[in-house]
């Protein structure tokens, strides 16, 4: 038996729950076919969600999933340019002609990149500043001096994979226009892993004080709102706190999904629910940081 | 004596790739360890951490390199830690981790030879720090006269400075931390 995982035509954070629901129980017992033939677009979050799922299936000892590439040539070329297919080939049995990857598109700040060790974090943060400065300034009207704040947020988000997930993960950063949701340019940092998730990471040190309330939602609240860490060191937990400070500074949004819950710090320009629980299960943690363009100075 | 640690150089010796970003806890811990080893063999009064040519320092690395080094030197009554060459965003990250741990350090920012106080210190301690740095060594009576405070208030502020290792008590007076 093969279970079909139909990739949403427009695959971003809002379509993620639809994607997660198609897996049924985790890990699925059937072989999976990721059917992307109808895909028209995917955000960085969507692209790394597919890789996260495939990697988690590998970690769970599941049979290598199948993947049918998008039929739309432009979509396929774009996914190739982001590096998606290069990494997908390691985890999927891919069906359909895949174009050779060209140079990265101008709006890609960071291609789809695996994060497996701290050296990967160094590489990501070391490679980004020049491109980040140009895109933040030219497209978001954010001063080039903000690049360090951006690099810090990227660094802390990626480190969390290595420190807390118990496995590897993925990061991608891209600038694009949110026509419907915001009507302006945004930079989106997407970070995802298929590891143990917030609840299992924080459970030994923090579940007790939550009592019966403990679950994926409470664990996200502890991590994102209260800045707690599984480590006893009082200096810990500042990574997410620093990301929140930067997101607030940019009037941006941070959303973290883990297990069956999603918690977001929602700015006035978005209508997302701060907390969503009882969602379809998906392993690990998926983070999206959205930085909107500032109004251009007069 | 002042021993200078160039963070950019230590970073290059710690990670194989030629990056200029001080990021991740393991990198921070490795750099701190090298500084602590050097300080253990040194009779220096001040450990000057020079951030020139460092592009980015994240909170995790700042906590490992600076906050934990300051804590260790406090508990061992070791060298005074002074920072130099921090950019504005770097200052913000460092200040945040110091505040989180209720620590403070002297940092050379705008005015050469005139340190600024970074981190967690109350208003009286900040005033006392400025007074000692700008006008020289002071005992409680001297500071009380300079600032118009009571002797008790001045004594308390100077004691706070000493306990934060932002001044040293020598020959009957509180003196500035030695800086270049």
Index terms:
heterodimer, A: 298 residues, alpha/beta, four-stranded parallel sheet, B: 180 residues, five-stranded mixed sheet, two-stranded parallel sheet, 9 strands
Tell me the helix content of chain B: 40-55%
Largest sheet of chain A: 7 strands, antiparallel
Number of helices of chain A: 10
Q: How would you spell out the order of helices and strands of chain B?
A: EHEHEEHEHEEHHHEE
Low-confidence stretches of chain A: none
Per DSSP E runs of 2 or more residues, the count of β-strands of chain B stands at 9
Give me the oligomer status.
Answer: heterodimer
Which strands sit side by side, in order, in the main sheet of chain A? 7-8-9-13-10-11-12
What's the total number of strands of chain A?
13
Mean of the pLDDT scores of chain B?
A: 92
Strand content of chain B: 15-25%
Whole-Å distance between the termini of chain A?
61 Å
Helix tally of chain B equals 7
Q: What is the CA-based Rg of chain A, rounded?
A: 18 Å
The helix content of chain A is 25-40%
Q: Characterize the largest beta sheet of chain B: strand count, sense, and whether it forms a barrel.
A: 5 strands, mixed
N-C termini distance of chain B = 9 Å
Nearest-integer average pLDDT of chain A: 91
Folded structure, characterized:
- The complex is a heterodimer of chains A (298) and B (180).
- Chain A is an alpha/beta fold.
- Chain A has helices at 16-21, 44-59, 73-81, 84-88, 118-127, 129-140, 147-165, 197-210, 216-225, 238-249, and strands at residues 2-6, 10-11, 31-35, 41-42, 66-68, 93-95, 108-115, 169-178, 184-193, 253-259, 261-265, 275-276, 282-292.
- In chain A, helix 5 (118-127) packs antiparallel against helix 7 (147-165), helix 6 crosses helix 7 and helix 7 runs antiparallel to helix 10 (238-249).
- The mean pLDDT of chain A is 91.
- By secondary structure, chain B is an alpha/beta fold.
- In chain B, strands 1-3-5-6-7 form a 5-stranded mixed sheet, sandwiched between helices. In chain B, strands 2-4 form a two-stranded parallel ribbon. Chain B has a two-stranded antiparallel sheet with strand order 8-9.
- Chain B is elongated.
- The termini of chain B are close together.
- The model of chain B has no long low-confidence stretch (mean pLDDT 92).
- The chains are: A alpha/beta (298), B alpha/beta (180).
- Chains A and B meet through helix 5, helix 7 and helix 10 of A and helix 2, strand 4, helix 3 and helix 4 of B.
